[in-house]
Fold:
Amino acid sequence: MNDQTTAHREELLAVFDREMREGARPDGPGVRVERTDGVVRQVGTDHDWNGVVWSSPDLDAAGADAAIAAQVAHCTAHGYGEFEWKLYAHDRPADLGARLLAAGFVPDEPETLLVSPVADQPMTVRLPEGVRLRTVRDEADVDLMARAHEQAFGSDWSRLRHQVLARLREDPDHFVGVLAMAGDEPVSSARMELYPGTGFAGLWGGGTVEAWRGKGVYRALIAFRARIAAERGYRYLQVDATEDSRPILQRLGFTALGTTTPYVYRPAS
Structure:
């Protein structure tokens, strides 16, 4: 990695940390952001995503342990089924992951944080024959999103369904849901979260059912959302990518800024 590439990466990471983590805003209706105990966390109901999005780089060992204990107490007091600490590879102290593990948090699979300037992304949508894209409009469309997601990833979508329906009802200006349809069947679905007050739009989902993989559907969903983000004045696209999507995104010009690992705490029942 040359000096220019390193500087570009460090600049993108600094902007992301400042706008999306330290300066985090609620990502949906009914949730709030709290700054306490050296962390920034989002909290809502048990149906919402509850967790830590940023921790102070000044945390030392004692401060980290105190902050972790405070989050465990918060989770327990509010009766959350789970609470997540979203740990980034550059967070401090360096052994923060081990400290979370010792406190009862369980790490999930790490993902790669990728960011691209919107202006650098191709916005021409190219689809395989027989597939069309359309935005999500109502509850029936959300059910189609759920079907595509569950077939693509093999995981339950009930919690996300609740969140997507809430966004459509209460904050549609900052949410875009997209369906890839082959006839009447959903073959892929994706979401874009538009974060007001920041330059970032987050890309989520994009899982494609097995029969339609490798045909350009995922790339088309990226281009479709990039075009909308550009029209609405957002500067950056951000993705937490699995190893399936990371190579595709890097070929499209996204820059890998490091890894992020969800550490999840589930109180004993």
